[in-house]
Model the fold of this input.
Amino acid sequence: MIVDCHVNVYEDRHLTPVHGEQVATRSGGFDPKADPDTVFQAMSGVDKAIIFTLRYGDSAGVSGDDEVTARAVAKYPQKFVGFAAVDPRRPDAMELLRHAVEDLGLRGVKFGPIYNGVHLADPRMVPIYEYCVKHDLPLTMHMGTTYARNAPLEMGRPIHVDEVARRYPDLKMIMAHMGHPWGEECIVVARKHPNVFCEVSALFYRPWQFYNTLVAAQEYNIAGRDKIFWGTDFPYAGVEESLEGLRNINHLVEGSRLPRVAQATIDGIIHSNPFAHWWHGKAPA
Done:
């Protein structure tokens, strides 16, 4: 079984002019289309995909809504599990979250502190954390840097997850992108807390950083412990290239005495199953 735990979904109308301006600064080209049908076709190589929209209109230029996520799940229920997207700056943030979960049937939450400019310790996050715990909702967080100029880098630091994890030990938290470039912060926080996990989406195209992060994960003994999950960050990366990048990670150090990423680590990430670990009760099938 292969599960893509990080897939973005939105429609063309959700893209703002900011999006084109910002992505021009990132390395590598990509097709920004991520409507439900496009995403379904892109996910043909995986068994399941966790999908969510983005409420990052003023930073990354995507101003989505949970309805598009719910429509995708309704159309392709055997493939997709949907998460709600939360922007704590909005006065109706909790109303939207309750609607997404209780009316639309979404099963988790996605939040980007760096994109919304809201620190994990901000008081506006408290009702979101409490709601997640009450309703058994995993919280996926963008952790790490971004190319978006209107985004405070400090809010992407994985070390800030430590305080929240200590305060809410029943809240399942997932640090996306292994907190790049602060991978070791991500690793030590995930090692410390049973309720904290991480995932490798959108890391393969920085192979040296990716390699070092996975070696560090082995040295800190979180590899092979159902702590690291696999994802793409579609449309910013695709399924096959993401799988190939992980499978071939040791090509970097062929002919050297540098440590290898163990095959067990690679296979464990590719076949990781969030549905067995991210929920306390009955996980989505």
